[in-house]
Here is the input.
Amino acid sequence: MMTRTATLVLLLFAATVGAQSIDYDPRRAVELRPCDEHRYHGRSEQARTCYAKLLESPTPIVQAEAAWAVGDIQRANRIFRDTVQNNERAVQPRVRWARLYLQTHQYSDAVELFGEALKVFPNDVHAKLGLASVYAERFEGQARPLVEDALKQDADLIEAHLLTASMDLEEGQLDDADKALDRAMRVVSKEKLPPLEVYTLRASLEMARGNNPDQWIKRILDYNPRYGAMYQQLAHFEIMRRRYKEATVLLRRAVEVQPDLWGAHAELGSNLLRLGNVNEARTHLQAAYSGDPYSPTTVNSLRLLDRIDEFSISEDPVVIGQDTYQVQLRLHKKESDVLRPYVLDLTSRSIQSFSQRYGFKPREPITVELYPDHDDFAVRVAALPGIGLLGVTFGYVVAMDSPSSRPTSEFHWGSTLWHEMAHVFTLEVTDHYVPRWLSEGISVFEEWRTGPTPGVAVTPEAINALEKKQFLPVADLDSGFIRPSYPGQVQVSYMQSGLVCLFIEQRWGFEQLGVLLRQFDGKRTTAQAIEATFKIAPAAFDKEFDTFVRTRFANVLANFEDWQRQMQAARQAIQKERWADAVEPARRAVALYPEHVGGDSAHLMLAKALDKLNRRSDAIVALEDYRRAGGWDPTALRELARWLDEAGRTQDATNLMVSLNYSDPLNAEVHAQLGERLLTAGRNEDALREFQALLALNTLDQAPAHYGMARALREMGDKMGSRRHLLDALATAPHFKPAQALLLKMIEERS
Amino acid sequence: MNKAHLIAALLATACALPASAATYTFVVAGLGGEPGYEQRFREHAAAVASAAEKAAGSTANVISLSGDAARADAVKRDIKTLAARMNANDSAVIVLIGHGSYDGENYRFNLPGPDLTDSELARLFDELPARDQLIINATSASGAVIERWQKPRRVVITATKNGGEKTATRFAQFWAQAVASEAADTNKDQIVTAAEAYAFATNQIAAAFKAETSMATEHARMEGNDAGRFTLARLGAGEVMPDNPEVAALLSQRGAIELDLNRVKEQKASLPDTQYYDQLEEVLVRLALLQKEIDAKAGGGATP
Here is the structure.
């Protein structure tokens, strides 16, 4: 039964009311209904007076509801708690108490209470729907089965139809949403219930179809001129479609018609942050905090804003042909000097590549933000579904983890930035109407084709899903991202979407991918866009795609267990240092499944075993194959660079080390070595960049960085700069003999 | 140790110990408890002892115990043996590698057989005749001893900030690296001092935890002044100062220039940029020319 701790937490709340949703439960006390009527029509004062009179009602649940409605959360909580404690079998009070918890952001306590209600009465549809609404809000797959279960018991459950429609809308299943809303409307008319939520979703549906929702908005405001929740809901779907600017307009309207709608203030603040409008964001977040100080989203966002001075902002023009684009970088001060040149370089290259490939020129400055603390980054994406994200794109604003936020072997920040930059283009080309699957698919595809780690790298989880026939029909692929039905489905959906784009490129040519992208103008579903572009039905598309992937991965699909056995054999041999025994299984595993380039890749085991057997040239081939397949493990590639050097392939080793900056840019040794190599190769500007990065890393031994910069600048003809860095080197390390020799040479040249 | 102290310690290398003084080093690798640790402790001890022998120019100045030989009675016996060889003008360096424990009252250095407590070890160190002492306790929980072992002219370094940091430490690994390579020699004088080794080891430990994005389980401490006066390793050509009065005189001149250099650097904030770099250049050119002369006379990199 409900824990006391949770109760105590709630008791701390003052009057933290937001928008109370409509209670469709027919068990709702009759005394409350006239007051509800006032509330539904936006007659706040009358509603308050009406509810206030019920505060002394002899029926505890009526008292609790009245207290809740007038904003006395503490009192409502106390009465619900006492009611539940006095009657262990009370179901409806538990359900309503749980709803109160939902409103105060205590989701796990709410889930517990709904669960308790269902233990008492397993068929209570309102408890089921309450639980389903929590799951739906968290984008968890259990929501739909629960709703369907409730509907089997009672087909006239309006809340079930509304939840279904809402989930359909989130997943882009517009026709299904339409049908669910028809059913909801029939019940509303029959039961004479307030139509506000049905109309709101109708308006959302119109918007999702690219139509004008004004007729529904008018009906809603005629019914209740203070119904800000409608605009908040419309904004929610716009945010789901990544249409942040449009969402901002709606959220402004929400707080205009209902200034005490704290959730809308919070969402508006978060959304303004996504758009980079920091000052106004702060104002709305503070307003939200004043009315609802316990919202974790609001508190986290305000905390992030409190530390905004820790970030430095730079603005650079990027010139591509005749065009100049503005790029703004927002990097943490402790690492901005090291990262800036690499982030700017990759951003510039991505603009060049994507503007050419997708025929679109960015119309606004592009902002790239890197967060060394993943929690700070998470605050930026709190309103979006998906866990463990590395980066998020809000149109012209990209936010992502910094290389310092994760171990280097787990995170290739260059690929992540490339992926996110592709989103900038796919979102902006389509005015943000691109469906999630296609935007992610193109981003993954571009990582494979043009990114810093080219190669079609496909995870075993995706192969496994393919084998189990878990790939989704293309028209339904968005649901794999939004409401996954099995663990790992989001990652599998990324892979599937990338493969769909690869299939389109192979089957119809790359240009057709751009044609498909441009179909999404807000008026077409995925199914319609597929038909319009490829002149085949989505089912036929799915069939051809299935054949494509099954052909491409035929080897591993037919021998997945064998591949696992070979991997195991190679792994065990490596562990026991029986190098000769590792070679054949590792080679066979690579042959079966070359696209596997994760941490335990067979390519890596093969290279290690071959090297230990003194077969260095074969080991080099193994690691080069690994890299071509998309492998990027920095430790392995540093080793490959060393081997290439020893094999006399200095130029290849240098180029390989340059690529390491996009996975391991905070490694002083790489910058030091690369600086020397580039200087030797006469690539003085590149060498200077490496020594600058080395200096910015603020290592214990700063003399080599200064000395390197002195030499690079000298080669570039900057005598003044060279002298300063040379003297700085010697001020740090007065006995640094190479620097002393250069100093004497410099003096000699001057005299 | 804050940055200002670290810089002061690094600069203090200019004022080295008297030429006649010798450095005696005692290294103990304690009980590993498992083969991996046994081997690591033995390797770290060997690296530290080897660097000390090279720096002293004599194997007689160094005693190292590891494995089963590192028992409490052997430690007591050998530390007394070493004590018998030194006088008050010499310096003593003690390095304890391995596991330590702290029960809230007593620190124990884990050895095969009975452990040695912090007070037993303190008594042994106090019996050393050398006035200048450097004690490095690289074990877990070693921070428990830092205040207890403090004494005038003694520098105490511990791998952990207190007795509560009980996880096996990495300090010895990086200390061994510091004395065995040029990486720690930040002023490039071919000498690794205790100040440089400490800065290197703490820097590497922080980097290692950061690279793993894991919480740091050890925070080293150093108490005592002028850790830069202890020479732990001489690198490359700069092994032992030649017994040549001419070179010794030049090295003395070099020390004076180094003091000039420090004076210029101290004025950096108050001088206009151009003037600062002009003055810096003047001193550094003098130093470079003198170094050429020293190298010519000493046949390569003599160091004090």
Observations:
- Chain B has two domains: 3-234, 245-298.
- The radius of gyration of chain B is 20 Å.
